[in-house]
Amino acid sequence: MKRLFARIAAVVYILWGVAHVAGGGLMLAAALQGADPFLQAQTGIPGLQLESASSVGTASTAAARVFAFHSFNLIWLGVFTIVIAAAMNWNNSSIGFWLNMVLVGCTDLGLALFLVIPGLMAVEDAWIGPVLFVIALAFSALARFQVRAPDRVTEAVSG
Predict the structure, then answer these.
(1) Cβ neighbour number for residue 60 with a 10 Å cutoff
(2) What is the rounded CA–CA span in Å between residue 23 and residue 128?
(3) Domain residues for 11?
(4) Residue 6 belongs to some domain of the structure
(5) pLDDT tens for the chain, residues 1 to 159
(6) Is 121 a domain residue?
(7) Does residue 76 lie within any of the structural domains?
(8) Would 10 be classed as within a structural domain?
């Protein structure tokens, strides 16, 4: 069962990674199109344009670039999670358990603290990552910490 649980956890961590690589890629593409398309994509308001004031344009361009940087980092968090899952969680590695638990857990904690709780991101837009994390962590913990039932022969010999 440990092996099955470890592989289920690895697959779910891979799904988490793929979702974040894809999401980061889409956000990066929107941010690199410039400030106006970026704001249109983020607000859902087609045709949204910045005022012509240069300070507003500079600030929004800077915000788009910071968002591009965040998106780039999100892609690499996803890639690293996939690599850990495929190379380590698949084989029930203790190091892989702790690496993905901390990496994915801290990433989703940041999502909750800085985007969902303040109301900048709707729960229905943010649920997939944390749900996948909880599922992967549960199966990974079952694989790592499952206690083996005592063998009756061993009990009879030692008892």
Answers:
(1) 17
(2) 11
(3) 2-147
(4) yes
(5) 899 999 999 999 999 999 999 999 998 988 888 766 666 666 666 665 655 545 555 667 777 788 899 999 999 999 999 999 999 999 999 999 999 999 999 999 999 999 899 998 889 989 999 999 999 999 999 999 986 655 565 555 555
(6) yes
(7) yes
(8) yes
